Amino acid sequence: MKIVTASxxxxxxxxxxxxxxxxxxxxxxxxxxETIGQFEKMSVLKPTEETMIYNGTLKEAFEIMSxxxxxxxxxxxxxxxxxQEYAGLYDRNREILGRYGYDLPLSISDFLTAGGQRNLFxxxxxxxxxxxx
Length: 133
Hints:
Uncharacterised_YhcU; DUF5365 family protein
C-alpha cells in the first residue's frame, strides 16, 4: 500500500494560470493569431480525457508547475543564443509535461525561427486594463 498526497485546488488553479500565460504572453511573441488558434484546436498543453495521465498527486502537480515555469522563463527571457544553450532543458521539461498528457509539439527551434516578433494587437494577449472605452 502506498500513500500519496493529493494536489490542492490552488495548485490545480496555478497549472491552469501557467497554461494561460503560455497562450497569452509567450505564444503571441512568436506566433500569429491563426497559428495560436490551431494550437487550441490541437489541444496544445490542454490534455483531453484520453490523453490525461495526471492523477492529481502533489508530486505530479509540482512537476507540471515547475516544468511550465521553466519553459515560460526560457521562452520569455532568453535571447536566441541562450535558447540554443537551453535546448536540453527545454526538451526535458517538455518531456515531463508529455508524461502527464500536456502535449507541447513544438521544439525549441520553432521558437528560434518563428521570429520573436511581438504582435501588439493579438486577440490572445492580455488586456492592458479591464475598462472598455
